[in-house]
Task: structure prediction
Amino acid sequence: MASPFDIDEIYPDDGDQSLRLPRRQVGNSPQGVAVTLLADYTLRTRAALPSAAIVELLAEAGVTTAGARTAISRLARRGVLEGSRLGRRSSYRLSRAAAANLSAGGHWIITSTAAAARWDGCWTIVAFSLPQDLSTQRRALRAQLRWLGYAPLYDGLWISPRELTAPARAQLDQLTHGAVTVFRGRQVPLDSAGHRAPIEAWDIEAINRSYEEFLRRWTPLLPPVASGAVDGAAAVRARTEVMDTFRRFPVLDPQLPVEILPQGWLRRPAQELFAAVYDGLAAPAERHVRAVVARFTDTAQPGIRAHTTADMAAGVRIEASLPERGYGGAAG
Result:
């Protein structure tokens, strides 16, 4: 089975070909960290931040100055960021398409790890056949299926315990142009020992180990977060890292039915831990981002606002943007 971490994109493509979000990598890439930082603190307002402030925030996350500037430049070329200049001063903000995409992705992260509805025992099967010369189309289809919560039981046959929604059907139509068939039904058990159960499309043991590792990594941080001991750059780093780690779980465990999972499945404890850390660090992290931006501006920063998991579950609403020129201040 292909590794579930082979998903091609951090969030799904919304169909705008000019927008290309960074590819998922093992570990944090400079572009991925930059997108997370801007999404965590400017998603609602699409506020423009001085490039020098973005470079400073990325430096605190371990990204070199050269790596930060390269990441900003590439994100602008991809259509993720929009740049503006005032004299020698440059600022960047999330593009409208990227903001909408990231808002949908955040909603998916939270809702996909919430308690699942009772399973009806049926599976949705997506079968497709695309010629080898359509490798780009095959890759896009697989990435979209993975994002929709499907996994490959066999090559060209992907499954999910959930029903295919109308938006998902429209996305598949766009990607396949008819070279796909969808069924929904129950598995017919066979007597032979060699038959493969649908749940085996997912590596259950590996998913469980990922949950255990997440809990080991972040549980010790709960007392310091609750007491307010995590502040400044440490709060921003931890909040960015816990998001970059947790957002993998909806792909690994797309609300798989608890009825066929091992007892004591750790989806809920992981979701509760993520919410406690991410929400608990929202205020100190926002204060620090404001303080860093203030070093490079001579105006207030009304557009810097950290959202919570409750905001993500409701769908972060994109407000009217601040002026495109962004904040004034030091040269970027």
User: Anything to note?
Assistant: Residues 4-105+288-314 form a domain with the Arc Repressor Mutant, subunit A fold (CATH 1.10.10.10). Confidence is low (pLDDT under 50) at residues 1-27, 324-332. The first strand starts at residue 49 and ends at 50.
